[in-house]
């Protein structure tokens, strides 16, 4: 896919496409700080799906940065709101959570 516009517009396009896809979980359109733990988990899933779709469509580098930053921000918020998530993510034996993300939780 060829997308003309700045990287934040490309990120918004993919996020909107994934959020509005029939059958995907719904997340209220409000700041991450106001989302519940359940909504943040859904937001993480949807953001990662958008990131993955953009990569498959040929996006790379700076075009992916806004989506990755959105994912990181939601990850941090979930870590702040859920001790269980934070403990799970900070467990270094978990390959699912890259060291960079564990550091984000340690710093917040």
Q: What would the average pLDDT be, to the nearest integer? A: 80
As a percent range, the share of strand residues is under 5%
- Large-scale geometry: globular
Q: Tally the structural domains.
A: 1
- Number of H- or I-type helical stretches: 5
Biggest sheet record = none
Q: Please report the distance between the alpha carbons of the first and last residues.
A: 36 Å
Task: Report the order of strands and helices.
Answer: HHHHH
Structural class: mainly alpha
Helical coverage, percent range = 55-70%
DSSP, total strands: 0
Radius of gyration: 14 Å
State the low-pLDDT regions, or none.
none
Care to describe what's here?
The protein is mainly α. The protein has one domain (15-107). The protein contains 5 helices and no strands. Helix 1 (7-19) packs across helix 2 (37-56) and helix 2 (37-56) packs antiparallel against helix 3. The model has no long low-confidence stretch (mean pLDDT 80).
Chart the SSEs and their pairings.
Layout (H helix, E strand, L loop, with lengths): L6 H13 L17 H20 L8 H17 L1 H8 L8 H9 L1
